[in-house]
Amino acid sequence: MKSAVIVFPGSNCDRDLAVAFEAVSGSKPEMVWHRETELPEGLDLIGVPGGFSYGDYLRSGAMAARSPVMQAVAQAAAQGRFVLGICNGFQVLTETGLLPGALMRNAGTHFVCRDVALTVGSSQSAFTSRYEAGERITVPVAHHDGNYFADAATLDRLEGEGRVAFRYAEQVNGSARDIAGILNDAGNVLGMMPHPERVIEKAHGRTDGRRLFEGLVEEMMARA
Amino acid sequence: MKARVFVTLKTGVLDPQGKAIQHALAGLGFDGVNDVRAGKLIELDLADGTSEADIEAMCKKLLANTVIENFRIEAVG
Asked: What is the CATH number of domain A3-223?
C-alpha cells in the first residue's frame, strides 16, 4: 500500500496520521508539501491531516483548499484513490468541494477538546467496513469549527445514500443531524472531525480508531 | 482603485459569534438588541481597470464560501 500525507503550513496532526498509516499498513507514507503540483506515482491513500493550516485565516481550510497540491488531490480522488481528511483535513475537503457542506464555528463558540461518543452511520465503505452500523465508539475531537452545515436537500441526500459515516452520540458542536463524518458519492473520500489516528494503540487508552485504517488497508490489499 | 467586499452569513445560518456578541451587549446593559450577525469586511487595493466580474470571481473562488455566506461588492472612490 502506498500512501501520502499532505503537509500545510500549520498542520500539526500530519505526523500522527503518518504514524497511524505506517502502524496499520506497515509502510511509511510520503509526506507531501502543499506547494507540490503533483503527487507521488501510484498512491492508494492520501491523508489530509488536522491542524490549523494557514492559521485558519479567512475560514478554516480555505487557504489550504486553494494550494497547488489540492488540485492534484482532487484529481486523485476523481480517479478513485482513497482520501481521508481529519479535522482541519475535513474542513479543507469541504472548501475544496470534494465533500458537500461547510464546517462552521461550534454552536457553543467554545473550542471542544475531549473524547466523544460516536455512532457508526454506515459500514458500507472501505473506511467503515470493520465497524458495525449503529456501533458506538469513542474518539477524541479537538476543534473550534466542527459545526457541520448543509442545506436540507443535501442532508437528506447524505442520509438517504448512506453517506453519513459517523454521527455524534452526544451534543458536541451543533452539527446538523449530529454529523461527525461524511463520504463522497463514490465512497472513496471521507471527511471527519474526530481524530481516529489518536486512538489506534493500547497506549492511547483505547483503539477505537484503528479499525478505520485496517478497513482501508484491507480494501487496498484486495484491489492490488 | 479600491473595492470593499462584505461577507455575511446567509439568513438562517446560525451565527454563534453574533449570538455571543448579543449576549455580551446584554451583559453590559444594552437591552433591546434583538439579534447580532457578525461578518467580514475585506478591502482590496486593485489594479486600475479590474472588472466587477473579476472581483466577483475572487469572491466566489476564495473570499466567500457560498455554501454558507453571501457577499456584496462595493467600489470605493
From this structure: 3.40.50.880
